[in-house]
Amino acid sequence: MAEQRGTVNIETDHCKGCGLCTIACPVKIIIFDVNSVNIKGYQPVMIKDPTDCTGCGSCALMCPDSVITVKRSIRKRRAAHV
After folding, report:
1. Which among 25, 44, 24, 42 is positioned nearest to 33, based on CA atoms?
2. Half-sphere exposure of 71 toward its Cβ, with a 13 Å CA cutoff?
3. What does the pLDDT look like over 11-27, one tens digit per residue?
């Protein structure tokens, strides 16, 4: 059985903090980085737990400035033997 996973890259210097990606993420791993302000003066988003990413790409599709990219990968799971 295979499981789709993803690696998310956010260009934080170009993120304007609109939050659309936080709404679009089905596993809610994208949050605002409350401790950061980028070079444009916006509060960017960050990934709170990258290992939970499913690789769906919804965040990248919702981003109006195309600052999010998702690299998808397939991981094979071992079948449980009973």
Report:
1. 44
2. 5
3. 999 999 999 999 999 99
